[in-house]
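Why should sequence recovery work at all? Because a backbone constrains its sequence more than one might expect. Tight turns favour small or flexible residues, buried strands favour hydrophobic ones, and helices have their own preferences. The token representation captures these environments compactly. In the example below, the structure is given first.
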């Protein structure tokens, strides 16, 4: 079941059987955790290749860097969605890319 379906299900079950609502909440958390792990895997893979190709400084802790990038992207995405929906995505992308590039190259 897609995450959006789990969220809708949680809303439907809220206030009904406590055990059912808890099952939905747990399923939603598991779905988010799996998605996070998949995204972190992609980020870590890209960073590993960049280290191997000499594009990123040697010795970079790619797992920690992947988590930091994930957090940065999620935070900026939420803020844009909630507070600045008209801000161009290209502007956000350029800013995030610049921040990331400066931190991992030197």
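From this structural description, the recovered sequence reads:
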């Amino acid at each position: 079941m897609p995450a959006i379906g789990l969220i809708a299900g949680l809303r439907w079950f809220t206030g009904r059987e406590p055990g059912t609502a808890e099952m939905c909440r747990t399923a939603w958390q598991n779905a988010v955790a799996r998605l996070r792990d998949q995204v972190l895997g992609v980020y870590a893979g890209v960073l590993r290749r960049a280290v191997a190709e000499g594009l990123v400084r040697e010795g970079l802790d790619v797992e920690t860097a992947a988590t930091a990038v994930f957090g940065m992207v999620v935070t900026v995405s939420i803020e844009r969605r909630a507070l600045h929906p008209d801000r161009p995505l290209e502007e956000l992308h350029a800013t995030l890319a610049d921040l990331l590039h400066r931190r991992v190259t030197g």
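A few observations help interpret the result. The radius of gyration is 18 Å.
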